[in-house]
Write a structure and sequence with these properties.
- The protein is of the alpha/beta class and 241 residues long.
- It contains 8 helices and 7 strands, in the order αααββαββαβαααββ.
- The protein is globular, with a radius of gyration of 18 Å.
């Protein structure tokens, strides 16, 4: 609820939006999306990310919603789904393709990804689809939290909304800034670029490279088009301990 010290404004907003009625509609839409190429592309990407490990893994789905992507995971020992909406988690108890979810155990947690804490080195893989740089900012604070939760060599796999997406309002100031950006020296282009990505409300290759530097090695970074957004797909491996 609002005012709860364990929840921030982003979580309050998500919980209010994804109420019981919306969550039920969202869960129904999961089944409708199954045959679409973009949904299958995300499932394939998630499975291929799991295949980068040579062992069974412990996984965190950051902003799991209705558990839409649980069935795409492979060789998972434990799966934790964190979401700000209790109504969405009710639906996640019976996710789409439940018969194909192979995780040995699934735990659902109602919490704010910006504030909730897990013990250090709990997970091998933290993934997030359709949440970061879309519903909540992807910034150094979020990345530091994920890094802390990962074991050495663990991976962070996530999608973002790219600032070039047609879903981002193309104002004249934005167009002018994008045109000018490549011609400016770093001391001028950097603050302008931070404004264009709204400090993590959107994320492009430059923003991700800057934010992940020093804690992660980017293994793959590509663009991916759905019917709604142009996304970035990133898989980064934790460096060091």
């Amino acid at each position: 609820m609002a005012g709860d010290p364990s929840r921030g404004p982003w979580a309050d907003r998500a919980a209010a939006l994804y109420d019981v009625g919306y969550a039920r509609h969202y869960r129904d839409h999961d089944a409708e999306l199954l045959p679409t190429p973009s949904n299958q592309g995300l499932i394939d990407w998630l499975g291929e990310t799991c295949d980068r490990f040579d062992r069974s893994i412990d996984v965190l789905d950051l902003g799991c919603g209705t558990g839409r992507y649980f069935w795409g995971l492979r060789r998972v020992r434990t799966l934790v789904g964190l979401d700000a909406s209790e109504a969405m988690l009710v639906e996640a108890r019976h996710p789409v393709h439940q018969d194909r979810v192979t995780a040995e155990s699934v735990t659902l947690v109602n919490g704010d990804l910006m504030l909730h804490e897990f013990a250090a080195a709990t997970f091998d893989l933290v993934y997030s689809i359709g949440v970061l740089a879309e519903h909540v900012p992807l910034d150094a604070g979020v990345i530091a939290r994920v890094r802390r939760w990962l074991r050495p060599g663990g991976r962070f796999a996530f999608t973002t909304v790219h600032p070039s997406s047609s879903s981002v309002t193309r104002t004249w100031p934005r167009r002018a800034a994008e045109w000018a950006l490549p011609m400016l020296p770093d001391r001028l282009s950097r603050p302008l670029h931070h404004r264009l990505v709204d400090r993590g409300r959107y994320a492009d290759e430059r923003w991700l490279t800057e934010q992940l530097a020093g804690g992660f090695v980017i293994e793959s970074l590509t663009r991916f088009q759905t019917d709604v957004h142009l996304h970035g797909l990133c898989v980064a491996r934790k460096e060091g301990r």
